[in-house]
Specification:
Helices cover 26% and strands 29% of the residues. It has 362 residues and is an alpha+beta fold. Strand 12 and strand 13 form a beta hairpin. Helix 3 crosses helix 4 and helix 6 crosses helix 8. The longest helix is centred in the middle third of the chain and has 16 residues. The chain binds pyridoxal-5'-phosphate (PLP).
Length: 362
């Protein structure tokens, strides 16, 4: 299946320019959606078929659709960036497409070919390019997802699966400058277990993290950090972001991929950029005691979280039941250096020696 097989059914009532401009001026996150969406269906007999760009709108979901009962679902998140010349690009979509295949394999969903994943994004952004905001860390957030749409309550991998892509304009994550977030240490809940689905980008992992996230908010924190499920000792990641530690000698460490950590595209990019800036990088286990002791002794000088939505986010405070510690009042120089470079590449302000950028429009 190639893009020539994606049928375009334009919306008869796209949002008018004035209303769209209002939305793009202050889009927030995940509240507004572009005029169209891509939908592709899968069955064992027909494989992927019926690819269509159609007006954005509700699905008709049968109450017995298996996703509603057994949560066979995965998703991706990437962004479309408008460059200075008006063209629209995305960042490492092949990495997201490959991760989507790995997530699908773990959740017993069919594999969507990498080129179909990318063509679907290209088709949607071509039709809705006016929805890509410009300037100031704004972007069009792209959300590909796949779910079990078979009407069947039996427990087995679905034989009817739907893939879709929707797009939502996103404002700058930090409206008033890069400010450190506070992190709550989850001691009662884990996100992912050995042999579980932690490395897959599936809705179920998020469902499992919400109560811990709510606990974080109740304790005055912005985000939650999870430890490994077996020993409650190794730092794994936040609910939806990977974590990095910067040491006094300029080196960086991030927890090694262990099957329960989600392999972030931002994480891999940070590892490469940091090396190019001359920082030693290490993927290894960092325990919660390493974190606390490292900050106390001055060995750990910066902590940051990273992911597509927030790029790099400094961690200011770690709190737990009965204690807290400050990891920095403001964003550190290494965090800012890598953050800046990543954004410069994404917004086309510097060269792209890695070939990470992929043109979407025109
Ligand atoms: C998506 C996600 C990340 C970050 O991945 P990016 O590809 O960098 O956006 C990290 N952790 C979890 C649990 C995620 O779902």
């Amino acid at each position: 299946m190639t893009s020539s097989h994606i049928v375009i059914e334009p919306s008869a009532s796209p949002l008018d320019d004035e209303r769209r401009a209002q939305i793009l001026a202050d889009p927030g996150f995940g509240r507004h959606f572009s005029d169209h969406m891509v939908v592709i269906e899968w069955t064992p007999d027909e494989d992927w078929h019926g690819a269509t760009v159609k007006p954005y709108g509700p699905f008709s979901v049968d109450p017995a659709s298996s996703v509603l009962h057994y949560a066979q679902e995965i998703f991706e998140g990437l962004k479309a960036y408008r460059h200075g010349d008006g063209s629209v690009w995305t960042f490492r979509p092949d990495a997201n497409a490959h991760r989507f295949q790995r997530s699908a394999a773990r959740m017993a969903l069919p594999s969507l070919p990498v080129e179909v994943f990318i063509e679907a994004i290209e088709a949607l952004v071509s039709v809705d390019h006016a929805w890509v905001p410009s300037g100031g860390e704004r972007s069009l957030y792209l959300r590909p997802f796949m779910f079990a749409s078979e009407v069947f309550l039996g427990v087995r991998p679905a034989k009817h699966v739907t893939f879709a892509v929707i797009a939502s304009p996103a404002g700058p994550y930090f409206a008033g400058g890069v400010t450190p977030v506070s992190i709550w240490l989850s001691e009662d809940f884990t996100r992912a277990a050995p042999g579980g689905t932690g490395a897959a980008k599936c809705g179920g992992n998020y469902a499992a993290s919400l109560v811990a996230q709510a606990e974080a908010i109740d304790n005055g924190c912005d985000q939650v950090v999870f430890l490994d499920a077996r020993n409650q000792r190794d730092v794994e990641e936040l609910g939806g972001m990977n974590i990095f530690f910067v040491y006094a000698d300029g080196s960086l460490a991030t927890p090694q991929l262990n099957g329960s950590i989600l392999e972030g595209v931002t994480r891999s990019s940070v590892l490469e950029l940091a090396t190019e800036f001359g920082h030693k990088t290490d993927e290894r286990s960092v325990t919660i005691d390493d974190w606390r002791d490292g900050v106390a002794t001055g060995d750990i000088v910066e902590v940051f979280a990273c992911g597509t939505a927030a790029v790099l986010t400094p961690v200011g405070t770690l709190k737990w039941r009965g204690g807290e510690l400050s990891c920095g009042e403001e964003a550190g120089p290494v965090t800012l250096q890598i953050r800046e470079r990543l954004l410069d590449v994404q917004y086309g302000r510097v060269g792209d020696p890695h070939g990470w950028m992929h043109r979407l429009w025109p």
